[in-house]
Amino acid sequence: MSVPKTSKTNLPAVPVRRWPNILSRTLWGLFVVGVGIFLLYPILVSMNFLFLFGKSPSLEELENPKVEQPSEVFTADGVQIGRYFRENRYPVPLDQMSPWLVKALIATEDVRYHEHSGIDPKAIARALAGVATGGSGGGGSTITQQLAKNLYKTRREENTGALGRVPLVGTIISKTKEWLTAVELERRYTKEEILRLYLNTVEYGSQAYGIKVAAKTFYSTSPDSLTAEQSAMLIGMLNNPTAYNPKFHPVAARKRRNLVLTRMGQAGMLPAQEVTALQQQPIVLRYQVEKHVDGPETYFRGAVSQFVNDWCKKNGYDMYRDGLRIYTTIDSRMQEHAEEAVQKRMKTLQRTFDNFWRNRGKNPWVDEDGNEIPNFIETQMKRTDQYKELAERYQGRPDLLDSALHRKRPMKVFTWKGDGDTTLVMSPLDSLAYYKHFLHAGLMTMDPFTGHIKAWVGGLNYRFFQYDHVKQGKRQPGSTFKPFVYLTALDNGYSPCDRIRDERVTIKYVENGKDMEWQPDNVTREYTGSNMTLRHAMARSVNSVTAQLTEKVGWENVVKYANKVGIRSKLLPVPSIGLGSGGDVSVYEMVNAYSTFVNQGFRPEPLLVTRIEDKNGNVIVQFDPQQKRVIPTETAWLMLHMLKGGMEEYGGTSQGLWEYELWRRNNQIGGKTGTTSNYSDGWYMGVTKDLVTGVWVGGEDRSIHFFRSQQGEGSRTALPIFGMYMEKLYEDPDLDIRMGPFPQPTVKISKKYNCVTEAPRPRREELAVDTIVVDNLLENLNSGTVPVPDSL
Fold first, then answer.
1. With contact defined as beta carbons under 8 Å apart, do 649 and 536 qualify?
2. Under DSSP, is residue 27 helix (H, G, I), strand (E, B) or coil?
3. Which residues are 628's β-sheet partners?
4. Phi, psi (degrees; rounded to nearest 5) at 80
């Protein structure tokens, strides 16, 4: 059976694929998607879609850009004493900048600046063409884009999203954010405002941010005084502040400056002849770099920065960024007088100290018997960071460690000769021994009524000795602690006229369950047998009377009262606490405690900062005086009366002050000397009707000290600093610090305080004046009304 043939005309139709139509539809689809992405992409970037693109500037940040500015510190009398910054910047208006700066900037960075709205398509096209051909078509960023990058840190890690970490993609996203931000800046600011922001924002090298600091750093001038050549140099540095720094790379910097001058000529901003003439000029700098903490190196600046930093952390501010204006309680004139007094006295005292030990053929580190401590420097070296670093580096190689410790090299060290420093060839051990020979000092003055700290000298020279002996350093206070014993007594029934005999006594007490005995010695090792008033005993600093009184009132109570009036350091309730051996204290604490006596029983809180303002001068916070009543008014006044005894009682330990010009207009000063048992610490606490001042003098270590009372007592080390200082304060016509007596008590004094003191009658052969005159003087002395010097 045959199969019939099928005709071609009867076959089913096969569809024909139209490839051109499919391709066309695909391309159109891709085009639409591309357009959509192109249109949506800026929106996605600006909103940081799914955290892919990173943070962009907010509307608030665009309208109120935060430019890092230094915070400034001022004294109470308006003197700027320092600045704190990470980026040293001080913004100035555009009209206070040289016109050459703007011309150089536009000619070099953005010649069509006034024609675009933040993005320059021609510049972008030129840059892309340069990349495509392997050459350089110049930068495509406008001034506004560069401002966006610098102002908002668009490329910082914290502003980078997930896609921003992908190579090339991250660059595209960053550029996009800069374009978008530039357009927004152009919408919100005029061209002049953008130029002002730019020139105040960019880095010029050598830690100089902003044109004012740059002009000062490189040329020691102001922005409005910059010449065309200087402007070209500074603008040229913006491309690479390190590579084109004229201080360190003068050849490269000159080439870059000349290129800027050429472009200024091409842009018609300088005649060709002037361009050529300026390009021939050498680089002439007046270079001076400001450090991150600019201003005089003083000890109280550390206390200020610590206080303000703590406040900033709690309140969301940054002292190194926010341009704060910090006003301190320090008076610059009093501070200068304090520093001068410390320098003058310590220079003389150091000479005496060096001669004292040189004549004995010993170093000043000695034990209680005056014998030099063996291997003292080697032992001290092992406690230093330098030794620990070397020991780590040469671990297991003691020979190399020893060699490093003895290796000599030139070192700049502190000296009292010349300008305060000199270069010596020393090893680390030599250097340590050299510095251990120095005596140190600390001084603080406070207004007892407000708590305002008016002067703070923490040491000899902050550059070389950064340890602060006002608040950081703590030492035994010696006899300056005795007033707290008498305070305890006066507040618990005793009066200044009560009497205790000056005699050798044995104090019995229990320690750790054991019966103990202590026999206090007077400084002279002598006992008069006199039945002394408490005022006379404190004035003459008689140990035996103080020890007996301590036993009567209880050493635990002495600790309690010391804490009440301002001593915060740990104190041990021991029988000898009244002689200053109950614990270490600071000058800061002692001044605070003595201020309670002057302030009628109110303990003032020491205050170093009065207010903080923002960069626009608005007060952010004000710190008002704080005080608390801790002892009755009567007790406080009686303590002042006791402290005046150092000048008014026969043989009072403050009478070295008679050498100074402090006694016009019936002036009164109260005070107390203090000396530790081995003469390692000398103190003087002085009070007037307006001020309380504490002074400490001693070695860096307790083993470094004088060995005799003739040189080492507080009356010979610390008291002269107080005397010189107060002389300067009273003599300064710009200071409203006047002499005068303490005010009369504001309450009725119920206790007897005008006592009769047993003054020894002068021997006949010592009488150099009429006996009637002597008797009159002694009578006035006994009444406590007229202070007299030791010579009478």
1. yes
2. helix
3. 603
4. -75, 125
Instruction: Please give the helix or strand (H or E) that residue 628 lies within, else none.
Output: strand 627-629
Contacts of 402 (CB under 8 A, 6+ apart): none
Strands 670-675 and 681-687: antiparallel
The residues near 650 (Cβ < 8 Å, ≥ 6 apart) are 536, 757, 759, 760, 781, 788
45-49, 402-406, 587-591: least confidently modelled range: 45-49
pLDDT tens per residue across span 618-632: 999 999 999 999 999
What letter does residue 518 receive in the DSSP assignment? E
Q: 3-class DSSP state for residue 620? A: strand
Nearest Cα to Cα of residue 564 among 487, 495, 500: 487
Q: Give the largest Cα separation in the chain, rounded.
A: 176
Q: What is the pTM of this model?
A: 0.77
At residue 272, the 3 state secondary structure works out as helix
**Does residue 535 contact residue 642 with C-beta atoms inside 8 Å?**
yes
For position 678, what pLDDT does the model report?
Answer: 86
Cα 711 to chain centroid, rounded: 33
- Name which of 635, 732, 606, 721 is nearest 673 in CA terms: 721
CB atoms under 10 Å from CB of 42, counted, come to: 14
Q: Which residues is 607 bridged to in the sheet?
A: 452
Residue carrying structure tokens 């927004």: 184
Are 411 and 424 contacting, i.e. CB atoms less than 8 angstroms apart?
yes
Strand pairing report for 453-457 and 439-446: antiparallel
Is the distance from CB of 229 to CB of 236 less than 8 angstroms?
no
| Beta carbons within 10 angstroms of residue 278's beta carbon | 19
Which residue has tokens 């703007």?
A: 102
Strand partners, 442: 696
Q: Indicate the length of the chain as a whole number.
A: 792
